[in-house]
Amino acid sequence: MMATLDSFESVPRILRLNVAGHPVDWASWQEAVCLYARDLVAWTLGDAVLSLRGGHSRIDGTQTVVNIHSIIACGGRRVPQGRSAPALTNAALFGRDHFLCLYCGRVFQPGALTRDHVVPKSRGGKDEWENVVAACKRCNHHKGNRLPHECGMELLALPYVPNTAEYLALTNSGRILGDQMDFLASQFGRGRRERESLLQ
Ligand SMILES: [Zn+2]
C-alpha cells in the first residue's frame, strides 16, 4: 500500500520501536518523516507505506527519495525505562478481554459491556487493570457489590496489565497493517492467548 501525495489522509500510522526492537508508540507519517530527516531511523521492517520526493541534487540532478516504512526503529531519543501502566479506558479494556463477558463467556457489542471491578470499589477495590474485567450488564448487575465467589460467579480469565505491544494493538485497532500486527502479536503475553482460547 503505497500512498501518493494526494492521499496523505490514508497513510497509516507508523509503528515506532527502539533500537532494541521493543515497540514504543505509534507515529504519524509527519513524525516519521522528521525522524528520517534527522537520521534517527536505525533500521526498518515491513513495506514502504509512503514515498516522498525531496530536492534535486545540484551535482547530478538526481532527486532524493525517502521511503517511509511501516515499522521503524529509532535511536537518539531517550526511551523511558520504567514502563508505566498503559491508560485504562473502556475501549482498551473491552479489547483486552476480546469483547467477552468474563463471567458468562459470551461476546457482546462494546455498548453492551461494562467495566466490572472484581473487588468492588466500595470494598476497597482499585480502578486498575488487575482489578477490572469486561462484563455484560446482566452479569455486572447480578454481581453487584459482591466478590465473585460470594455469588457463585467465576472469572473465566484473570485480569492483567497489557504489555506495550498489546496496548499499541488495542489503541490502533482497525488501522493496523498486516506486518505491524504480525510484529506486535509476536510479543503478546499469556493473558491474550488465554482469552483467544475462550473464543474457540
Ligand atoms: Zn455476562
Key terms for this structure?
6 helices; two-stranded antiparallel ribbon; elongated; 6 strands; 200 residues; binds zinc ion; alpha+beta
User: What general form does the structure show?
Assistant: elongated
CATH class annotation of the largest domain: Mainly Alpha
- CATH topology of the largest domain, what is it called? DNA Binding (I), subunit A
Query: Going across the major beta sheet, what is the strand order?
Result: 2-1-4-3
Bound molecules: zinc ion
The helix fraction, in percent, is: 10-25%
Secondary-structure-derived class: alpha+beta
Total domain units: 2
Radius of gyration: 21 Å
Textual characterization of the structure:
This protein has 200 residues and is of the alpha+beta class. It has two domains: 5-74, no CATH class; 90-162 and 169-175, DNA Binding (I), subunit A (Orthogonal Bundle), CATH 1.10.30. It has six helices and six strands. It has helices at residues 29-37, 90-96, 137-143, 164-170, 178-185, 190-199; strands spanning 14-18, 23-27, 41-56, 63-74, 113-117, 132-136. The protein has a four-stranded mixed beta sheet with strand order 2-1-4-3. Strands 5-6 form a two-stranded antiparallel ribbon. Strand 3 and strand 4 (63-74) form a beta hairpin. The mean pLDDT is 89. The chain binds zinc ion. Residues 101, 103-104, 135-136, 138-139 line the site of zinc ion.
